[in-house]
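Action item from last meeting closed. Structure (477 res):
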C-alpha cells in the first residue's frame, strides 16, 4: 500500500518492531503467570545446587585453611548454608519428580544468582575469578524456560554483577598484601561478564527453542500419519471381514432358496424365505464391494494412475467457491502416466498442500503433474495473495503461518502454549506435508508466482512413489 506524499508514515523497521512488541507483551505475561508449566524438574535444580554447595564449600576451605587467606568466613558460611537449607526444605516439601512451573523455576534460579552475588560480595566482587559462575543459572534458565523468564534471569544477573562491581569487600589475598586491579581492567571484566551472559543465554535459548518446536511439530506429524495408518487398517479389516462372512452368507442364501422351493408359493412362510434370500444376496453384494476396494466407495486400489490419485485427493475439497482443476499431460506423451502407491504419507502430504491452497485461493486451484524418465513433479498453484515475504524463506518450519487472525508459536516461545494449542492456523499443515513428502523420498518447495498467487512443488525421483514397492515399507527402493 502506497501512502500519499504529504502523509507521514512510520518507517518499516520501526513499524515491524512496534507490531512485534504489541504481539509479544501478552505472551510475556502468559509466560510469567504462575500456571505456566516449565520443562524442568525440582530434582534437576536441587542436584545442581548441591554441586554448587559442594564446590563453594571446598573452595572456601582451601582458601581459608590451606592458603591462609583472610576472609569473612561467617558470612560466606551463612551464604552456603542457606543454599543447603533451601535444598533440604524443598526435599521435604516436594517429591523428587515434582515439575516446577516457570515462575517457580525462575524464582529458584534467581535465588542462586542472589546467593552467588552475596558470596562474591564477601570475596572481592567481580575481581574474584568465580564471578564467571553467573553464567550457570542464566544458561540453565535459557535452555529450560521461556523467553520472558530467561530475560528476567539475565536482567537480575546484570544487576548483581553491576552491584558487586561497585560494592564489595577486598579479594582474599596473602596477609599484609593487597591486590588492586586497575579500574579499566575491572570495567573490562564487567563488560566480558555481561556480554558473555547475553551471548550464551541467547545461544542456549535459541537452540532449546528450535529443538522444542521441532519436537512438537514432529509429534503432530506422527499423529497425522497414525490417523492415515488407522484408516488404511480399517480398509484391510473390511476386506478380511468380507472374506470371512462370505461363506456363512452363502449358506444362508442356499438354505433360504431350498425353503422357498419347499413351501407353498403363496404362503407367508414362502414370502419370508424370499425376503431372507434377498437380504442375504444384498449382504453378499456389499461384502463383494468391500473385498474389491477398487469398486468400493470406502476403499481404494493399492496403486492408481497419478491423475486419478490427484483427482481423488482434490474431490475432498471440491464443492465450495474455489474450483480445483487437474492438469495432466496428454496420453500421447512418450512416457506413460505413472501409477503411484496410495501410501498414507503421500496421501496426507499432498492432501495438506491442496487444502492449504484452497484456503488461500480466491477462485482457482490448479494441480499440475509432470514426469519424465528421471523425475516426477506435482505442482499446486492458487490465485491467492501468495506467501508473505517475511516467511517464505522459513516455510516448512513448524509453527510458521501467514493465516490472519490465528495464533502460532512465536520466536519467543519454546512450544505451543495451552491457550493457543486448540486454535486454527498453527502453522503445522505445511510442516506436516513437507515431513511426510520427505518420508517418501521427495522434497517440497514453495514459491510465489509472477502473476500473483503461490506454487508448491513436490518432486520425487522415478521409482520413489511409482516403483515396485510401496513407500515406507522395509523393501529397499
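Sequence:
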Amino acid at each position: 500500500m502506497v501512502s500519499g506524499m504529504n502523509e507521514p508514515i512510520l518507517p518499516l523497521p520501526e513499524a515491524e518492531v512496534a507490531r512485534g512488541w504489541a504481539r509479544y507483551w501478552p505472551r510475556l505475561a502468559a509466560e510469567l503467570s504462575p500456571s505456566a508449566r516449565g520443562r524442568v524438574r525440582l530434582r534437576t535444580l536441587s542436584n545442581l545446587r548441591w554441586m554448587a554447595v559442594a564446590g563453594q564449600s571446598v573452595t572456601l576451605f582451601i582458601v581459608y585453611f590451606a592458603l591462609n587467606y583472610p576472609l569473612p568466613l561467617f558470612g560466606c558460611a551463612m551464604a552456603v548454608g542457606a543454599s543447603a537449607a533451601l535444598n533440604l526444605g524443598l526435599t521435604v516439601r516436594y517429591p523428587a519428580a515434582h515439575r516446577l512451573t516457570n515462575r517457580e523455576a525462575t524464582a529458584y534460579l534467581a535465588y542462586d544468582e542472589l546467593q552467588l552475588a552475596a558470596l562474591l560480595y564477601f570475596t572481592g566482587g567481580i575481581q574474584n575469578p568465580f564471578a564467571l559462575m553467573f553464567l550457570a543459572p542464566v544458561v540453565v534458565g535459557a535452555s529450560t524456560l521461556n523467553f520472558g523468564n530467561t530475560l528476567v534471569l539475565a536482567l537480575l544477573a546484570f544487576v548483581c554483577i553491576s552491584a558487586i562491581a561497585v560494592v564489595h569487600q577486598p579479594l582474599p589475598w596473602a596477609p599484609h598484601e593487597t591486590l588492586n586491579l586497575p579500574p579499566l581492567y575491572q570495567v573490562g571484566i564487567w563488560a566480558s561478564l555481561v556480554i558473555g551472559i547475553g551471548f550464551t543465554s541467547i545461544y542456549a535459548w535459541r537452540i532449546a527453542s528450535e529443538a522444542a518446536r521441532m519436537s512438537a511439530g514432529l509429534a503432530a506429524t506422527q499423529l497425522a500419519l497414525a490417523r492415515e495408518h488407522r484408516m488404511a487398517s480399517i480398509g484391510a479389516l473390511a476386506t478380511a471381514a468380507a472374506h470371512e462372512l462370505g461363506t456363512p452368507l452363502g449358506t444362508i442364501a442356499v438354505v433360504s432358496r431350498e425353503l422357498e422351493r419347499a413351501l407353498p408359493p403363496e404362503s407367508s412362510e414362502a414370502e419370508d424365505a424370499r425376503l431372507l434370500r434377498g437380504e442375504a444376496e444384498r449382504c453378499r453384494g456389499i461384502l463383494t464391494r468391500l473385498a474389491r476396494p477398487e469398486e468400493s466407495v470406502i476403499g481404494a486400489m493399492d496403486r492408481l494412475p497419478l491423475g486419478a490419485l490427484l483427482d481423488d485427493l482434490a474431490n475432498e475439497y471440491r464443492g465450495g467457491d474455489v474450483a480445483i482443476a487437474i492438469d495432466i499431460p496428454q496420453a500421447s506423451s512418450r512416457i506413460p502416466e505413472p501409477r503411484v502407491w496410495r501410501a498414507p504419507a503421500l496421501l496426507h502430504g499432498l492432501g495438506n498442500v491442496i487444502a492449504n491452497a484452497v484456503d488461500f485461493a480466491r477462485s482457482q486451484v490448479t494441480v499440475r503433474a509432470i514426469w519424465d524418465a528421471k523425475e516426477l513433479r506435482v505442482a499446486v498453484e492458487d490465485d491467492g495473495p501468495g506467501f508473505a515475504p517475511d516467511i517464505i524463506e522459513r516455510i516448512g518450519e513448524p509453527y510458521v503461518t501467514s493465516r490472519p487472525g490465528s495464533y502460532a508459536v512465536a520466536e519467543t516461545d519454546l512450544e505451543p502454549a495451552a491457550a493457543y494449542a486448540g486454535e486454527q492456523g498453527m502453522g503445522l499443515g505445511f510442516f506436516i506435508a513437507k515431513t511426510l513428502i520427505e518420508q517418501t523420498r521427495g522434497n517440497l518447495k514453495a514459491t510465489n508466482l509472477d502473476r500473483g498467487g503461490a506454487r508448491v512443488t513436490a518432486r520425487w525421483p522415478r521409482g520413489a512413489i511409482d516403483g515396485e514397492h510401496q513407500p515406507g515399507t522395509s523393501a529397499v527402493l
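Note appended to the action item: The CA atoms of residues 328 and 369 lie 5 Å apart.
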